[in-house]
Amino acid sequence: MPNLLPPLIVQATFGLAAAIIAEGSLSFLGLGVPPNTPTWGGMLNREARTFMSKSPWLALFPGLALSLAVFGFNMLGDALRDLLDPRLRTS
């Protein structure tokens, strides 16, 4: 069990980042959650595409939030991998 837990924790953080990307992509395409539920992909699809020429920040902020969330979870997984890898530990 001690050898199994660190890779599972790291894989969970990368899986969470992939789930965020999948939800955002499906919501952008209109195949995600219902339209009344606020999601980053839905914000990029509905509001941003309608007013893109007048208000470009309507696409910029949800896109940046989505990117930063995925980047943060990937960096968390990378840091946990470095922290929990027994080969990197010094004696």
Task: Describe the protein.
The chain is an all-alpha fold and 91 residues long. It has one domain. Helix content is 70%, strand content 0%. It contains three helices and no strands. α1 runs parallel beside α2, α1 runs antiparallel to α3 and α2 runs antiparallel to α3. The mean pLDDT is 84.
**DSSP summary, beta strand count:** 0
Largest β sheet strand count, sense and barrel closure: none
In terms of DSSP E residues, the strand content is under 5%
How much helical structure, as a percent, in the residues? over 70%
Mean pLDDT, as a whole number?
Answer: 84
Question: Number of helical runs?
Answer: 3
- The domain tally reads 1
Radius of gyration: 18 Å
Shape assignment: elongated
Specify the structural class.
mainly alpha
Which spans of ≥5 residues are poorly predicted at pLDDT below 50?
Answer: none
End-to-end Cα distance, whole Å, is 22 Å
Write the element-wise H/E pattern from the N-terminal end onward. HHH
